[in-house]
């Protein structure tokens, strides 16, 4: 067939150098009619205080503790932690070798989990918070990172937020979680493998180079300031996935200058406002920080380049969700909207939250 290849109409694969994986892009499928599942939109009009909420100030949690009447952020050990601090070590049974040891591998893992409330107000989310209020959240993350680094021998602190019931969040009070484990989780481990390979081959940081490349042609950039850039990555899987990157090679929260902290809060606010404005709904997502391990080994401190992943599930509107099924589960991830088209749509919406217009 003759003609010129069209990235906006012709199917192609894009490589993700961070995880050494590929995504199939099928932009011609955006025109197909949708008769699939539609999600219910989240109910609005939440009160500033909810007497039945386990996370509101002064309330009793499910297991009995009473929250202080906090006025900013509030951190506590998760009442239903996914990992335990105190448990016996796993010991391989005698004679557990051969195929069993090769194919049925087990590692015991210890750790601790935290819940971090962003605000005492039950009815706000990050896009409805001020930049100073978001800075308070960053300060709280930094204090926790330092505490785990100096007081434990655990390896990694994974800070993440599941926003919205569609992402499995059971409580709308603004909060995130932090899981601290003695093992390095699989996703950061994949990234370190790729960062190490790239550095050995090219002598530079993969993410430093990527920031430089994206700034040369800003078609995928959503918002940026002096210290941070938010963009739809070239290899994005989720329709409106974004990546927030430090413009300088900064390893972790504890390495931020006051200017960087303020700039990160600014980018988070502007990005999440655009998310909400895109479909005029409280936009659901899973968000997580990737940074230097709290107890790094080998070259991990030098390789680390702070970044945040935002994975939102919405596809065509507030009620249509993207699912990974079929070919995506058995072959490789696939998307219809190109990264460039997604970035243009997020970038085009206003910076003023639709609820505050």
From TrEMBL:
The active site is at 175 (tele-ump-histidine intermediate). Binds 1 Fe cation per subunit. Binds 1 zinc ion per subunit. Residues 194-355 form the Galactose-1-phosphate uridyl transferase C-terminal domain. PROSITE patterns: GAL_P_UDP_TRANSF_I (PS00117). Zn(2+) binds at residues 53, 56, 122, 173. It catalyses: alpha-D-galactose 1-phosphate + UDP-alpha-D-glucose = alpha-D-glucose 1-phosphate + UDP-alpha-D-galactose. Its cofactor is Fe cation; Zn(2+). Fe cation binds at residues 191, 290, 307, 309. UDP-alpha-D-glucose binds at residues 29-32, 62, 78-79, 162, 168-170, 177, 322-323, 327-328, 334. One of its GO terms (biological process) is galactose catabolic process via UDP-galactose, Leloir pathway. It comes from the Eukaryota. Keywords: Carbohydrate metabolism, Galactose metabolism, Iron, Metal-binding, Nucleotidyltransferase, Transferase, Zinc. This is Galactose-1-phosphate uridylyltransferase. It comes from Lipomyces tetrasporus. GO terms for cellular component: cytoplasm. Its EC number is 2.7.7.12. Pathway: Carbohydrate metabolism; galactose metabolism. Residues 6-185 form the Galactose-1-phosphate uridyl transferase N-terminal domain. It holds the Pfam family GalP_UDP_tr_C. Belongs to the galactose-1-phosphate uridylyltransferase type 1 family. InterPro entries: GalP_UDPtransf1, GalP_UDPtransf1_His-AS, GalP_Utransf_C, GalP_Utransf_N, HIT-like_sf. One of its GO terms (molecular function) is UDP-glucose:hexose-1-phosphate uridylyltransferase activity.
């Amino acid at each position: 067939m003759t003609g010129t290849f069209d990235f906006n109409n012709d199917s192609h694969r894009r490589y993700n150098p961070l995880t050494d994986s590929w995504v199939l892009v099928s932009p011609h499928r955006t025109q197909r009619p949708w008769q699939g599942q539609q999600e219910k939109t989240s109910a609005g009009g939440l009160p500033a205080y909810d007497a039945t909420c386990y996370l509101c100030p002064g309330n009793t949690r499910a297991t009995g503790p009473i929250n202080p009447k906090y006025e900013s952020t509030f951190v506590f050990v998760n009442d239903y932690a996914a990992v335990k601090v105190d448990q016996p070590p796993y010991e391989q049974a005698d004679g557990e070798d051969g195929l069993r040891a090769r194919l049925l591998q087990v590692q015991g893992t210890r750790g601790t989990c935290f819940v971090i409330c962003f605000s005492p107000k039950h009815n706000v989310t990050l896009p409805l918070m001020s930049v100073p209020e978001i800075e308070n959240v960053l300060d709280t993350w930094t204090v926790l990172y330092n505490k785990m680094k100096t007081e434990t021998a655990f390896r990694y602190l994974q800070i993440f937020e599941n926003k919205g019931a569609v992402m499995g969040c059971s409580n709308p009070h603004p909060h995130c979680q932090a899981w601290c484990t003695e093992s390095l989780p699989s996703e950061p481990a994949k990234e370190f493998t790729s960062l190490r390979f790239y550095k050995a081959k090219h002598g530079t940081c993969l993410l430093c180079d990527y920031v430089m490349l994206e700034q040369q042609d800003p078609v995928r950039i959503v918002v940026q300031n002096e210290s941070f850039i938010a963009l739809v990555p070239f290899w994005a899987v989720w329709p409106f996935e974004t990546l927030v990157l430090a413009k300088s090679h900064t390893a972790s929260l504890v390495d931020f200058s006051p200017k960087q902290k303020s700039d990160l809060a600014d980018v988070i606010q502007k990005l999440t406002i655009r998310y909400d404005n895109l479909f005029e709904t409280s936009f659901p997502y899973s968000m997580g920080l990737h940074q230097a391990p709290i107890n790094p080994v080998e070259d991990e401190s030098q390789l680390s380049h702070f970044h945040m992943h935002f994975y939102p599930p919405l596809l065509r509107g507030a009620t249509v969700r993207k699912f990974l099924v079929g070919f995506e589960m058995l072959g490789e991830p696939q998307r219809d909207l190109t990264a460039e088209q997604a970035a243009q749509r997020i970038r085009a919406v206003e910076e003023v939250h639709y609820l505050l217009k």
